[in-house]
Amino acid sequence: MQALAKSGTLRFEDFLLRDTSHVIHGTLDNGFQYYIVKEVHQPFQMSLLQKTGFHDDGETPEISHLLEHMLATANRPIATGDTLIQYLKKLGKEYGSGFNAFTGANFMKFDLYQLKSELAYADSCMEILSEIAEGSKICSEDLERQRTRMINEVANRKYVLNARQTDANLGVFRFGYDPAEWREVQLNSAKKITLSQLEAFYRKWYHPQNQCLLVTGNVPDGIEKIIKRKFGSHPRVPAPSPTILDFTDKNMLIERWGSTACSLTLNFALPILTQAEKTSPNFFRDYFALKQINHALNEKIRERKFASNFVTRYQVAERLMLTATFTCDLNEELPGGGLQAFVDSVAALVNDVRSNGVKIKMPKDTLKKGEVALRCAQIMKRLQEGNGEGNTIDRVLQPDVCFIYSLPLYKQENSDAYWTFMLSGKDISDYCKNFINKSKITIECVLPYDYPEKEITEKLNAFLRH
Hints:
This protein has a 6-stranded mixed beta sheet with strand order 1-2-6-3-5-4. Strands 7-11-8-10-9 form a 5-stranded mixed beta sheet, sandwiched between helices. Helix 6 (161-174) packs across helix 7 (179-192), helix 12 (339-356) packs across helix 17 and helix 14 packs antiparallel against helix 16 (412-422). The longest helix has 24 residues, at 281-304. Helix content is 45%, strand content 17%. The model is unreliable at 1-7 (pLDDT under 50). 36% of the residues are buried. The chain is an alpha+beta fold. The radius of gyration is 25 Å and the shape is globular.
């Protein structure tokens, strides 16, 4: 076993999940992909994913959003001869609850919920998503109605904190506008989008190599054949790659809310991953290390007790990211507290982690070398020979995220077990320091409406400069 551990060559493919009993991932000849995730105790659902979103809007902000409305509008004629709402009623589905759509920064998604686990029924439901994917007609009669709905939706987002923060984040950190200016840009653009622009946007982006069907839950047997029949005939047409926007030089956003608390979110983002980096074993090593850092950082903050509440989280999209949100209730100030002291405590924590990393013990630190070598050899054998059966899907690297950002779906338990014995606490800590020092840092601060902004802004800017 020790000899195998020393001589075995680790490959990227060893980490990929290929468990055909639980998870099926396929690619058709035209480039269309599909994921089938069988979970017999969950409702049967289907989603069409399209690699197109806000980042691809270019000179016409909100065009992807309006296209989503137009493709999902109730009165749109579809290939069966019905309107969308008529066809959904025939399937026993309610428009809006049984079927819905969403547009994000890098994707559009069309969902069918709570389906009957019957093959013929699934075939009929999939007809809707297949028709949206290719050859869809945009209903010109509904354009102004959907435009009005969308404009109201965009305008009203400023009254909901989470939606306002999301929009402001995109406007400030990705496009370089201040939040109010960005909202005006969105609204002015939405008022001018024409039917021909929508049709051109649809023809430009909606092609099989940028599309995926995600099927989950109590999936009926034989669904894969239907997917191939419904989507395999769509012609492969040259299409541009989705747009990946980097950050602007702006790094701070101040928002307001009707609360007595201050919320401070620090985002640490590494440079954009290249495709070569995504297909290297080092990707899995770094991802595992990031998960361990998130846990250790959570414990470190808990021990310091300077925040009323906090949450740390990690994510992978076009880059690896680590986020920490701290809340200070101004009506329940801790000893020696106050907002200024709260910001100082956050800065001290970050500077400590930047210089010293995190304290964490791994099996490599406590077990004898022979035991570690034996475990490594056993796990490498499972990695290279097993298909990942029984491995759960990672809560961050879900199939939809993997498709949108061209990331691997990996065998979580076996992969994590391997790195658990390969990396020491010092390895994790060193990676943490490197992560913080190489990251682009952005700050989102939410203050009570009546709290003065100047002093906090100066303090946060001083922290960023340092």
